[in-house]
Every structure is written in C-alpha cells, then in structure tokens.
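Next comes this protein.

***
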Amino acid sequence: MTRPRGVAGYGEDAEGLARRYEGVAFEEVHGELLPWLPDLPGRVLDIGSGSGRDAAALAARGYEVVAVEPVPALRRIARRLHGDTAVTWVDAALPALTGVRGTFDLVLLSAVWMHLDERERVEGMRRVAELTAPGGIVAMSLRHGPPPAGRRMFAVSAAETVGLAGRCGLAVVHRAEGPDLLGRADVRWSALVFRARHRTTVEGKG
C-alpha cells in the first residue's frame, strides 16, 4: 500500500513523538473544544489520531470513537498505550478516508490539516463534511510556523480554512489563536470549531 505523502517523518521517530503527545493532557490541548463536545451518546472520528491520547480521552468520556491513523508505528503504540479503551483503530488517511463509514457527531483533526496540499484540502473538506452528522461538530487545530526537517507541511491560514469549510456546509462557531504548548517560540496554533448545516446546503448535494 502506498503511504500518504503527509505522513513523511512520523514513523521514524514514533516513540519520541508519542512521548511528547502523551506528555500533554487532552484537556490542556483541546481546551477550546471542551464547551463544544456533543451530548452523550455520540460518535467521534479522530483523524490523524497519533498516539491515541485524544481518542482514549474521548472514549473515557463515554463516546464511541473511531481513530484513524495512517502511520503503522503510531497505531501500534496507540494500541499498546490505550488498548484497554473502547476505540476502533483504523488505517486510513485524508483526503479519501477509505473505509470510514457512517456519520459522526464530532470529527477531530488535531495538527493534521497543514499536511495536505491545496487539492487535497478541497477533497478532504468535502469528505469531512460528508462524514459529519447534520448539526455535528468539526474541530481543527492548525499549526503555523516552520516545519520540522523531513516533514511535508503547507502554510494554511485560518481564513482559508474557514472559507473552504463554509463552501462545504460547515459554519464556523468558534475561532481562537494561541501559542505552542511545547514552548516553541516560532510556532503558533489556530483552533477552529465548525457546525455542520443541513446536508442539502453542502455544495453539490441535494
């Protein structure tokens, strides 16, 4: 199977990355999202789930969680660290997310979107909208700053992302900017929360 281009550099240091991810709590990373979590019971799709930190935290809150991660080494680590949680681990990647079925009340994309080029972002946003239940929430974090060596990243603004989401039937309901939690002075983050409108409002649908 050909690996997605956006995962370059992640498998080589999976253990180190997992230690850094697991060193920061879900509630600290996603404080902007907490007020927007859907009511229980609900289905959650964690795209680019990495070490499984967020998927496990959401499962512990009572959600049915599907965690998508295209890097085999990270999936193995996630199962090792969080194998006792009710999470379904899936090998898939944006923009197609082949094999992911149904709709979800929350779709989470944490530090994922900047790995997609312009064409992939258009296709990926349509797919994310398709997987989000009417009235459901899409939460994204965007990394801004120079990419680490060996990583495929693009400069993606919050404004571009909000515009693209809107054309796919996802209305922005929250937007915030913040520093890097790992202390990197040249890195900052955007937190974006969208709500899915009725399916017939999505471009090309209905």
Observations:
- The radius of gyration is 16 Å.
